[in-house]
Amino acid sequence: MTILFLLATMFIANIGFGVILPTLPFLSRHIGASTVEMGLALSVFAVAQLLSSTLWGAVSDSVGRRPVLITGIVGYGVSSALLGFAPNVAVLLVLRFLAGLFAAAVMPSSLALASDWTAPHDRARILGYMGSMNGIGFVFGPPIGSFLSLIGLQVPFFCVGLLAILNGLLAFRLLPREQRPAAVVSDRSRRPDLSLLGGFWPGAKRGRMRIAPFLVGSFVFSLADASITATLAYYLIGRLHSDEIMAGWAFMVNGCMGALAQGMMFSNVYRRFGEAVTILLGFSFGVLGYLTLGFAQWLAWAFAAIALLALCRGFAYPAMTTAISIRTPRESQGSSFGAQSACNSLGRVIGPLLAGWLFAQQEQSPYFVSSGLMLATIGLYLLWAQRTRKQTIGDSRADSVHDTL
Predict the structure, then answer these.
(1) Among 151, 147, 162, CA closest to 22
(2) Cα(6)–Cα(129) distance, rounded to whole angstroms?
(3) Quick check: pTM over 0.90?
(4) How far, in Å, CA of 391 to CA of 210, rounded?
(5) Fewer CB near the terminus (10 Å): N or C of the chain?
(6) pLDDT digits (tens, 9 = 90+) for 65-85
(7) How far apart (Å, rounded) are the C-alpha atoms in residues 183 and 78?
(8) For 75-133, how does the pLDDT look when each residue is reduced to its tens digit (9 = 90+)?
(9) How far apart are CA 183 and CA 332, in angstroms?
(10) Angle at 90 between CA 84 and CA 93, to 5 degrees
(11) Structural domains for the chain
Protein backbone atom coordinates (compact mmCIF):
# COMPACT_ATOMS: atom_id res chain seq x y z
CA MET A 1 0.00 0.00 0.00
CA THR A 2 2.84 2.38 0.87
CA ILE A 3 4.63 1.75 -2.42
CA LEU A 4 1.42 2.22 -4.44
CA PHE A 5 0.78 5.52 -2.69
CA LEU A 6 4.34 6.68 -3.38
CA LEU A 7 3.89 5.81 -7.07
CA ALA A 8 0.67 7.84 -7.14
CA THR A 9 2.45 10.73 -5.39
CA MET A 10 5.23 10.78 -7.98
CA PHE A 11 2.67 10.67 -10.77
CA ILE A 12 0.62 13.55 -9.34
CA ALA A 13 3.71 15.68 -8.66
CA ASN A 14 5.02 15.30 -12.20
CA ILE A 15 1.62 15.87 -13.77
CA GLY A 16 1.65 19.14 -11.84
CA PHE A 17 5.04 20.08 -13.30
CA GLY A 18 3.82 19.19 -16.79
CA VAL A 19 0.59 21.15 -16.42
CA ILE A 20 2.32 24.33 -15.26
CA LEU A 21 5.29 24.44 -17.66
CA PRO A 22 3.38 25.14 -20.92
CA THR A 23 1.00 27.55 -19.16
CA LEU A 24 3.52 29.61 -17.20
CA PRO A 25 4.81 31.66 -20.18
CA PHE A 26 1.26 32.79 -20.99
CA LEU A 27 0.62 33.78 -17.37
CA SER A 28 3.95 35.64 -17.30
CA ARG A 29 3.06 37.56 -20.43
CA HIS A 30 -0.42 38.29 -19.02
CA ILE A 31 1.05 40.15 -16.03
CA GLY A 32 3.52 42.05 -18.20
CA ALA A 33 6.72 40.05 -17.85
CA SER A 34 9.52 40.55 -20.35
CA THR A 35 11.17 37.64 -22.12
CA VAL A 36 14.07 37.77 -19.63
CA GLU A 37 11.67 37.74 -16.68
CA MET A 38 9.78 34.87 -18.30
CA GLY A 39 13.02 32.91 -18.50
CA LEU A 40 13.72 33.72 -14.85
CA ALA A 41 10.29 32.38 -13.90
CA LEU A 42 11.28 29.06 -15.49
CA SER A 43 14.82 28.87 -14.11
CA VAL A 44 14.24 30.10 -10.55
CA PHE A 45 12.35 26.86 -9.82
CA ALA A 46 15.43 24.77 -10.66
CA VAL A 47 17.67 27.13 -8.69
CA ALA A 48 15.49 26.68 -5.60
CA GLN A 49 15.67 22.91 -6.01
CA LEU A 50 19.45 23.08 -6.38
CA LEU A 51 19.82 25.05 -3.15
CA SER A 52 17.40 22.99 -1.05
CA SER A 53 17.46 19.36 -2.25
CA THR A 54 20.42 18.31 -0.09
CA LEU A 55 18.99 20.13 2.92
CA TRP A 56 15.62 18.38 2.64
CA GLY A 57 17.41 15.06 2.30
CA ALA A 58 19.41 15.66 5.47
CA VAL A 59 16.29 16.74 7.37
CA SER A 60 14.43 13.61 6.25
CA ASP A 61 17.25 11.48 7.67
CA SER A 62 16.90 13.28 10.99
CA VAL A 63 13.16 13.84 11.54
CA GLY A 64 11.73 11.22 9.17
CA ARG A 65 10.64 10.88 5.55
CA ARG A 66 6.91 11.16 6.17
CA PRO A 67 6.78 14.72 7.62
CA VAL A 68 9.21 16.00 4.98
CA LEU A 69 7.16 14.43 2.17
CA ILE A 70 3.88 15.86 3.48
CA THR A 71 5.43 19.31 4.01
CA GLY A 72 6.84 19.29 0.48
CA ILE A 73 3.58 18.22 -1.19
CA VAL A 74 1.35 20.65 0.70
CA GLY A 75 3.82 23.55 0.37
CA TYR A 76 4.15 22.95 -3.36
CA GLY A 77 0.35 22.83 -3.67
CA VAL A 78 -0.23 26.11 -1.82
CA SER A 79 2.49 28.01 -3.70
CA SER A 80 1.27 26.62 -7.06
CA ALA A 81 -2.34 27.60 -6.36
CA LEU A 82 -1.30 31.14 -5.39
CA LEU A 83 0.86 31.36 -8.51
CA GLY A 84 -2.18 31.73 -10.73
CA PHE A 85 -3.21 34.86 -8.86
CA ALA A 86 0.20 36.60 -8.86
CA PRO A 87 -0.44 40.33 -9.41
CA ASN A 88 3.04 41.20 -10.70
CA VAL A 89 6.36 39.73 -11.77
CA ALA A 90 8.03 40.04 -8.36
CA VAL A 91 5.32 37.98 -6.65
CA LEU A 92 5.44 35.49 -9.53
CA LEU A 93 9.19 34.93 -9.06
CA VAL A 94 8.88 34.59 -5.28
CA LEU A 95 6.10 32.01 -5.61
CA ARG A 96 8.04 30.05 -8.24
CA PHE A 97 11.03 29.98 -5.91
CA LEU A 98 8.84 28.73 -3.05
CA ALA A 99 7.28 26.10 -5.31
CA GLY A 100 10.74 24.83 -6.24
CA LEU A 101 11.81 24.93 -2.59
CA PHE A 102 8.94 22.69 -1.48
CA ALA A 103 9.01 20.48 -4.58
CA ALA A 104 12.63 19.64 -3.78
CA ALA A 105 11.42 17.80 -0.65
CA VAL A 106 9.23 15.36 -2.58
CA MET A 107 11.79 13.39 -4.61
CA PRO A 108 14.44 12.59 -1.92
CA SER A 109 11.87 11.66 0.73
CA SER A 110 9.82 9.54 -1.69
CA LEU A 111 12.85 7.61 -2.93
CA ALA A 112 14.15 7.17 0.62
CA LEU A 113 10.76 5.88 1.77
CA ALA A 114 10.67 3.43 -1.13
CA SER A 115 14.17 2.24 -0.23
CA ASP A 116 13.19 1.83 3.43
CA TRP A 117 10.18 -0.28 2.51
CA THR A 118 11.82 -2.57 -0.08
CA ALA A 119 14.45 -5.28 0.11
CA PRO A 120 17.71 -4.66 -1.80
CA HIS A 121 16.96 -7.40 -4.36
CA ASP A 122 13.61 -5.77 -5.22
CA ARG A 123 14.75 -2.14 -5.09
CA ALA A 124 15.67 -1.80 -8.77
CA ARG A 125 12.16 -2.79 -9.84
CA ILE A 126 10.41 -0.36 -7.47
CA LEU A 127 12.72 2.55 -8.28
CA GLY A 128 12.22 1.80 -11.97
CA TYR A 129 8.46 2.03 -11.49
CA MET A 130 8.86 5.35 -9.68
CA GLY A 131 10.98 6.70 -12.50
CA SER A 132 8.35 5.64 -15.03
CA MET A 133 5.76 7.64 -13.09
CA ASN A 134 7.89 10.73 -13.68
CA GLY A 135 7.85 10.15 -17.43
CA ILE A 136 4.13 9.41 -17.59
CA GLY A 137 3.35 12.54 -15.57
CA PHE A 138 5.37 14.73 -17.94
CA VAL A 139 3.63 13.15 -20.95
CA PHE A 140 0.08 13.77 -19.76
CA GLY A 141 0.73 17.09 -18.01
CA PRO A 142 1.17 19.48 -20.97
CA PRO A 143 -2.04 18.51 -22.85
CA ILE A 144 -4.02 18.71 -19.60
CA GLY A 145 -2.52 22.14 -18.91
CA SER A 146 -3.36 23.35 -22.41
CA PHE A 147 -6.96 22.17 -22.03
CA LEU A 148 -7.42 23.76 -18.60
CA SER A 149 -5.95 27.06 -19.81
CA LEU A 150 -8.83 27.34 -22.29
CA ILE A 151 -11.12 27.82 -19.29
CA GLY A 152 -8.83 30.45 -17.77
CA LEU A 153 -5.14 31.13 -17.22
CA GLN A 154 -5.50 30.69 -13.46
CA VAL A 155 -7.33 27.36 -13.68
CA PRO A 156 -4.31 25.07 -14.31
CA PHE A 157 -2.42 26.50 -11.32
CA PHE A 158 -5.44 26.25 -9.02
CA CYS A 159 -6.13 22.65 -10.08
CA VAL A 160 -2.49 21.60 -9.59
CA GLY A 161 -2.42 23.23 -6.16
CA LEU A 162 -5.69 21.63 -5.06
CA LEU A 163 -4.58 18.21 -6.28
CA ALA A 164 -1.25 18.48 -4.45
CA ILE A 165 -2.90 19.60 -1.20
CA LEU A 166 -5.35 16.69 -1.35
CA ASN A 167 -2.43 14.37 -1.99
CA GLY A 168 -0.67 15.72 1.09
CA LEU A 169 -3.78 15.19 3.23
CA LEU A 170 -4.06 11.62 1.97
CA ALA A 171 -0.38 11.07 2.75
CA PHE A 172 -1.01 12.25 6.32
CA ARG A 173 -3.91 9.80 6.58
CA LEU A 174 -2.54 6.77 4.70
CA LEU A 175 1.24 6.73 5.04
CA PRO A 176 2.26 4.69 8.10
CA ARG A 177 4.50 6.27 10.68
CA GLU A 178 8.10 5.25 10.26
CA GLN A 179 10.21 2.99 12.40
CA ARG A 180 13.32 5.08 12.79
CA PRO A 181 16.62 3.30 12.05
CA ALA A 182 18.45 2.10 15.15
CA ALA A 183 21.48 4.25 14.29
CA VAL A 184 19.29 7.33 14.43
CA VAL A 185 17.24 6.38 17.47
CA SER A 186 20.32 5.59 19.55
CA ASP A 187 21.99 8.89 18.65
CA ARG A 188 19.73 11.47 20.26
CA SER A 189 22.21 14.22 19.50
CA ARG A 190 21.94 13.62 15.77
CA ARG A 191 21.12 16.79 13.87
CA PRO A 192 20.81 17.31 10.13
CA ASP A 193 23.80 18.86 8.42
CA LEU A 194 22.20 21.97 6.99
CA SER A 195 25.26 23.18 5.13
CA LEU A 196 25.02 22.82 1.37
CA LEU A 197 28.23 20.80 1.07
CA GLY A 198 27.40 18.72 4.13
CA GLY A 199 24.16 17.59 2.56
CA PHE A 200 25.80 17.15 -0.82
CA TRP A 201 28.31 14.69 0.65
CA PRO A 202 26.07 12.30 2.59
CA GLY A 203 27.21 9.60 4.96
CA ALA A 204 28.99 11.69 7.61
CA LYS A 205 32.32 11.81 5.72
CA ARG A 206 32.34 8.10 4.88
CA GLY A 207 31.32 6.33 1.77
CA ARG A 208 31.57 9.43 -0.39
CA MET A 209 33.58 7.79 -3.14
CA ARG A 210 31.13 4.90 -3.23
CA ILE A 211 28.38 7.09 -4.69
CA ALA A 212 30.42 9.93 -6.26
CA PRO A 213 30.52 8.33 -9.77
CA PHE A 214 26.74 8.02 -9.77
CA LEU A 215 26.29 11.64 -8.69
CA VAL A 216 28.58 12.72 -11.55
CA GLY A 217 26.62 10.49 -13.92
CA SER A 218 23.32 12.00 -12.75
CA PHE A 219 24.68 15.50 -13.38
CA VAL A 220 25.89 14.60 -16.89
CA PHE A 221 22.59 12.93 -17.70
CA SER A 222 20.57 15.99 -16.60
CA LEU A 223 22.92 18.39 -18.36
CA ALA A 224 22.58 16.47 -21.64
CA ASP A 225 18.84 16.00 -21.23
CA ALA A 226 18.43 19.75 -20.77
CA SER A 227 19.89 20.26 -24.26
CA ILE A 228 16.91 18.33 -25.65
CA THR A 229 14.40 20.31 -23.60
CA ALA A 230 15.92 23.66 -24.57
CA THR A 231 16.65 23.19 -28.27
CA LEU A 232 14.82 20.19 -29.77
CA ALA A 233 11.78 22.13 -30.97
CA TYR A 234 13.97 24.77 -32.66
CA TYR A 235 16.14 22.03 -34.18
CA LEU A 236 13.21 20.12 -35.68
CA ILE A 237 11.49 23.24 -37.01
CA GLY A 238 14.63 24.97 -38.30
CA ARG A 239 17.05 22.32 -39.53
CA LEU A 240 14.56 19.56 -40.40
CA HIS A 241 11.78 21.91 -41.62
CA SER A 242 9.13 20.35 -39.36
CA ASP A 243 6.40 22.12 -37.37
CA GLU A 244 5.24 22.62 -33.79
CA ILE A 245 2.94 19.60 -33.88
CA MET A 246 5.76 17.21 -34.75
CA ALA A 247 7.93 18.80 -32.06
CA GLY A 248 5.20 18.04 -29.55
CA TRP A 249 5.03 14.46 -30.79
CA ALA A 250 8.80 14.16 -30.38
CA PHE A 251 8.59 15.08 -26.70
CA MET A 252 5.68 12.69 -26.22
CA VAL A 253 7.58 9.81 -27.86
CA ASN A 254 10.60 10.51 -25.68
CA GLY A 255 8.52 10.57 -22.51
CA CYS A 256 6.40 7.51 -23.33
CA MET A 257 9.31 5.33 -24.41
CA GLY A 258 11.37 6.38 -21.41
CA ALA A 259 8.50 5.51 -19.06
CA LEU A 260 7.98 2.13 -20.76
CA ALA A 261 11.69 1.34 -20.61
CA GLN A 262 11.83 2.11 -16.87
CA GLY A 263 8.58 0.36 -16.01
CA MET A 264 8.80 -2.75 -18.19
CA MET A 265 12.41 -3.33 -19.31
CA PHE A 266 14.79 -1.87 -16.73
CA SER A 267 14.31 -4.33 -13.86
CA ASN A 268 14.72 -7.36 -16.16
CA VAL A 269 17.93 -6.00 -17.68
CA TYR A 270 19.26 -5.00 -14.25
CA ARG A 271 18.49 -8.39 -12.71
CA ARG A 272 20.00 -10.33 -15.61
CA PHE A 273 23.12 -8.31 -16.40
CA GLY A 274 23.79 -6.35 -13.22
CA GLU A 275 24.36 -2.75 -12.28
CA ALA A 276 27.51 -1.99 -14.28
CA VAL A 277 26.25 -3.35 -17.60
CA THR A 278 22.89 -1.56 -17.21
CA ILE A 279 24.55 1.81 -16.57
CA LEU A 280 27.04 1.39 -19.43
CA LEU A 281 24.25 0.23 -21.75
CA GLY A 282 22.14 3.26 -20.88
CA PHE A 283 24.95 5.75 -21.48
CA SER A 284 25.89 3.95 -24.70
CA PHE A 285 22.34 4.49 -25.95
CA GLY A 286 22.80 8.15 -25.02
CA VAL A 287 26.07 8.45 -26.98
CA LEU A 288 24.46 6.91 -30.07
CA GLY A 289 21.24 8.88 -29.65
CA TYR A 290 22.89 12.29 -29.46
CA LEU A 291 25.23 11.49 -32.34
CA THR A 292 22.30 10.29 -34.46
CA LEU A 293 20.32 13.42 -33.67
CA GLY A 294 23.26 15.66 -34.55
CA PHE A 295 23.68 13.99 -37.94
CA ALA A 296 19.93 13.74 -38.65
CA GLN A 297 18.84 14.74 -42.15
CA TRP A 298 15.22 13.59 -42.03
CA LEU A 299 12.47 13.64 -39.42
CA ALA A 300 12.34 9.82 -39.15
CA TRP A 301 16.06 9.86 -38.42
CA ALA A 302 15.50 12.33 -35.58
CA PHE A 303 12.70 10.20 -34.12
CA ALA A 304 15.00 7.16 -34.13
CA ALA A 305 17.54 9.23 -32.16
CA ILE A 306 14.82 10.27 -29.70
CA ALA A 307 13.94 6.60 -29.17
CA LEU A 308 17.59 5.83 -28.35
CA LEU A 309 17.66 8.72 -25.87
CA ALA A 310 14.50 7.35 -24.25
CA LEU A 311 16.31 4.05 -23.71
CA CYS A 312 19.18 5.99 -22.14
CA ARG A 313 16.68 7.57 -19.74
CA GLY A 314 15.08 4.20 -19.04
CA PHE A 315 18.30 2.33 -18.19
CA ALA A 316 21.04 4.70 -17.00
CA TYR A 317 19.19 6.93 -14.55
CA PRO A 318 17.25 4.31 -12.52
CA ALA A 319 20.37 2.12 -12.40
CA MET A 320 22.35 5.00 -10.88
CA THR A 321 19.52 5.70 -8.41
CA THR A 322 19.49 2.04 -7.37
CA ALA A 323 23.30 2.02 -7.03
CA ILE A 324 23.17 5.07 -4.75
CA SER A 325 20.47 3.47 -2.60
CA ILE A 326 22.26 0.14 -2.21
CA ARG A 327 25.57 1.81 -1.26
CA THR A 328 24.02 4.12 1.35
CA PRO A 329 23.08 3.14 4.93
CA ARG A 330 19.40 3.43 5.71
CA GLU A 331 19.92 6.38 8.05
CA SER A 332 21.57 8.39 5.20
CA GLN A 333 19.24 7.53 2.31
CA GLY A 334 17.60 10.95 2.32
CA SER A 335 20.93 12.77 2.15
CA SER A 336 22.10 10.60 -0.75
CA PHE A 337 18.95 11.11 -2.78
CA GLY A 338 19.03 14.80 -1.91
CA ALA A 339 22.55 14.98 -3.33
CA GLN A 340 21.38 13.25 -6.50
CA SER A 341 18.45 15.69 -6.82
CA ALA A 342 20.89 18.58 -6.40
CA CYS A 343 23.03 17.19 -9.22
CA ASN A 344 19.93 16.94 -11.40
CA SER A 345 18.95 20.52 -10.58
CA LEU A 346 22.47 21.78 -11.30
CA GLY A 347 22.29 20.11 -14.71
CA ARG A 348 18.90 21.68 -15.40
CA VAL A 349 20.23 25.12 -14.44
CA ILE A 350 23.42 24.97 -16.51
CA GLY A 351 22.11 22.79 -19.35
CA PRO A 352 19.66 25.18 -21.04
CA LEU A 353 22.16 28.06 -20.89
CA LEU A 354 24.97 25.94 -22.35
CA ALA A 355 22.71 24.36 -24.98
CA GLY A 356 21.32 27.74 -26.03
CA TRP A 357 24.80 29.18 -26.45
CA LEU A 358 26.03 26.13 -28.39
CA PHE A 359 22.93 26.14 -30.59
CA ALA A 360 23.60 29.76 -31.50
CA GLN A 361 27.09 28.76 -32.68
CA GLN A 362 25.98 25.69 -34.64
CA GLU A 363 22.65 23.88 -34.57
CA GLN A 364 24.07 20.38 -34.06
CA SER A 365 26.70 21.29 -31.46
CA PRO A 366 24.56 20.75 -28.29
CA TYR A 367 24.01 17.13 -29.28
CA PHE A 368 27.63 16.45 -30.23
CA VAL A 369 28.79 17.94 -26.92
CA SER A 370 26.21 15.87 -25.00
CA SER A 371 27.39 12.73 -26.79
CA GLY A 372 31.00 13.53 -25.88
CA LEU A 373 30.11 14.13 -22.23
CA MET A 374 28.33 10.79 -22.01
CA LEU A 375 31.26 9.02 -23.67
CA ALA A 376 33.63 10.63 -21.16
CA THR A 377 31.35 9.50 -18.34
CA ILE A 378 31.54 5.92 -19.60
CA GLY A 379 35.34 6.14 -19.53
CA LEU A 380 35.38 7.59 -16.02
CA TYR A 381 32.99 4.93 -14.77
CA LEU A 382 35.15 2.14 -16.24
CA LEU A 383 38.26 3.59 -14.58
CA TRP A 384 36.44 3.87 -11.25
CA ALA A 385 35.13 0.29 -11.52
CA GLN A 386 38.63 -1.01 -12.27
CA ARG A 387 40.09 0.89 -9.32
CA THR A 388 37.33 -0.36 -7.02
CA ARG A 389 37.89 -3.95 -8.16
CA LYS A 390 41.64 -3.73 -7.45
CA GLN A 391 40.99 -2.22 -4.04
CA THR A 392 38.50 -5.00 -3.24
CA ILE A 393 41.01 -7.66 -4.28
CA GLY A 394 43.69 -6.00 -2.15
CA ASP A 395 41.39 -5.86 0.87
CA SER A 396 40.43 -9.52 0.49
CA ARG A 397 44.12 -10.53 0.29
CA ALA A 398 44.88 -8.51 3.40
CA ASP A 399 42.03 -10.22 5.22
CA SER A 400 43.32 -13.62 4.07
CA VAL A 401 46.83 -12.87 5.40
CA HIS A 402 45.35 -11.65 8.67
CA ASP A 403 43.30 -14.85 9.05
CA THR A 404 46.36 -16.99 8.28
CA LEU A 405 48.43 -15.20 10.92
Answers:
(1) 147
(2) 10
(3) no
(4) 12
(5) C
(6) 889 999 999 999 999 999 888
(7) 35
(8) 999 999 998 888 898 998 999 999 999 988 888 888 888 888 787 777 878 887 777 77
(9) 10
(10) 65
(11) 1-176 (1.20.1250.20), 198-399 (1.20.1250.20)
